[in-house]
Structure formats: structure tokens, C-alpha cells
Amino acid sequence: QLDELEFDNVQIDQHGPIAVLTVNRPRALNALNADTLSEIAQAVNMIIEDAEVGALIITGGGEKAFVAGADISEFGDLEGVYDGRELALAGQDVMHQISSLPIPVIAAINGYALGGGLELALACDVRVASAGARLGLPETGLGLIPGFGGTQRLPRLIGTGRALDLILTARQVKADEALAMGLVNYVADNALTKAREVAEAMLKNAPIAVSLVKEAVRRGMDTTLEGGLEIEADLFGMTVATKDFREGVDAFLNKRPAEFQGE
Ligand code: CO8
């Protein structure tokens, strides 16, 4: 059982097909120290193994923060280029693990999402922010650059000009501005409640199709339009071979809700 797993800084709650991973270290605004990053990686591995889980929500514990970044108090241990590179690669691995999950992953941004915290949200498929959330990549103000994917995922999501503005000014944006620039998909009074609604809407659709859409978009972002269209055609072909496709068409023609089995 996922919710019986014991971690120090990560909590998993499962309600039917929705798992909620809470980064729970509120005394440090959920900052990602090495232990927390490792616990997130372990938790995500367990979630992948669990066939019951059809969607994952990632959120932050406490009132103030989603995740306020990598843990700055551990930066003193970093001594040189090699250490820095290793830390960035370790964080990038976890973000990659999240972004390549075959199920929808929604960030419920309930407060500060800064630095590595915003990078965690960027590794998710969809972002829901609470009205009071603050988002930003403050790294240049610390003499760093974003290292958990921010320089790559942010421009892919909102475009180069907007991404460079945010990274070079290191400014925090409020939820409304984040919505206007496409950095978040929804703003709601309660990010977690809205994230559940979004997850439920996604769970109504055919799981194999959902997973293949994610694969098509993800792989397509790394290639040319022509290459991406080939990937789309291949994966489209795979959906046509599923029982769920037959079910979806039959349900439409018979004016009834579809019941997908993930086959
Ligand atoms: N790391 C460690 N501790 C933190 C962090 C953090 N990122 N953020 C907050 N905390 C701690 C504070 O130190 C404080 O602890 P204490 O009570 O023991 O003094 C506690 O959380 C509460 O924070 P504040 O008192 O500062 O709360 P405020 O409401 O006054 O301010 C802010 C909230 C604005 C969010 C403020 O805490 C802040 O600016 N935090 C730092 C945000 C930041 O700069 N994050 C980016 C870090 S860099 C990063 O993420 C790089 C990722 C890629 C790494 C690649 C490696 C090479």
C-alpha cells in the first residue's frame, strides 16, 4: 500500500486511482535537500509499480510553500565544478523520472515554487496554482543558474523571451501573471482541490491513449516537426490496436459513457 510507505520528508496519500505526493518539510519551506530528493525518487518508483494509480498530484506540505527550492543550507558542501555538476545531474534525474511517468502528473502549487521547486513543477504535465502562489527562478541572485532543468523546460513551456526575462531578473511572479504567460494552467482558491478535479477529468479518458499522448509530446519536443509527426503516426497506430479504442467508438455510437479498461 502506497500510503503505508514511511519517509521522513515525503508523504503519499492514495484515494482510488489518484496518488498525492506531498513534499513535507515545512520548517524549511519544503526545500529539496539530498534526502528529500532521494525520497521523492523512491516514492515515484513505488508509484510507477502500482497499477492502481492512474494520476499523480505533487504538492507541498504546510501553508506557505510548494517547494522553496534546493536546500541552500547544503550548498556549503559543494566545492567545485564536479560537485555542482553531480548535484545538477542528480536533481535532473529525479525531474526526468517524473516527466517520463506514463500517467498524468499535476503540480498543485500551494505557495512558493522557487528554484528547484519551480523546476519540480515544470517536470509535471499540468500546473495548478493557488491564488497566493509565487513562482520564480532566483538562482542568478545566488550566483547559480537553474540546475534541475529550468533553463531547458521553462523556455520550452513559455518561450525563450519570457523564460529569459524570468531567469535573468530572478523575479517572483504571482499566480495571475503565471497564468497569463502560460506558466500555470489554472489558478484556484485551493490548488489541491482543483488538481484533483483536473486529475479526475484525465482519468475519464483511455489510459493507454493518455500515456501515449505524453510520450508523443515528450519525444516530439526533442526532434523536428517531421520526426515528431512520424512518432505521432506510430503511436496513433498503437491506439487503434487497443480494446479501449473499440470501446470508445462503441460508447459514442450507442450514446453511453465509455468504460475503459486500459487494454
Ligand atoms: N533552502 C533551505 N532553507 C530554506 C529555503 C531553501 N531554499 N527556503 C526557505 N528556507 C528556510 C529558511 O531558511 C527558514 O528557516 P529558519 O526558520 O530555520 O530560519 C524557513 O525556511 C522559513 O523561511 P523564511 O523565514 O525565509 O520565510 P519567509 O516567509 O520570510 O520567506 C521565501 C520565504 C521568500 C521563500 C524565502 O524563504 C526564500 O527566499 N527562500 C529561498 C528561495 C530560493 O532562493 N530558492 C532557490 C534555491 S536555489 C535552487 O533551487 C537551485 C536548484 C538547482 C540546483 C542546482 C545545483 C547546482
UniProtKB/TrEMBL annotation:
Q: Does the keyword Transport apply?
A: no
Please give the Pfam families that the UniProt record associates with this protein.
ECH_1
Molecular function (Gene Ontology), one example: hydro-lyase activity
Lyase as a keyword of this entry, yes or no, is: yes
Q: Which UniProt keywords apply?
A: Lyase
According to its UniProt entry, one GO biological process term is: fatty acid beta-oxidation
Q: Which family is this sequence assigned to?
A: Belongs to the enoyl-CoA hydratase/isomerase family.
Q: What is this protein called?
A: Enoyl-CoA hydratase
Q: Which organism is it from?
A: Deinococcus indicus
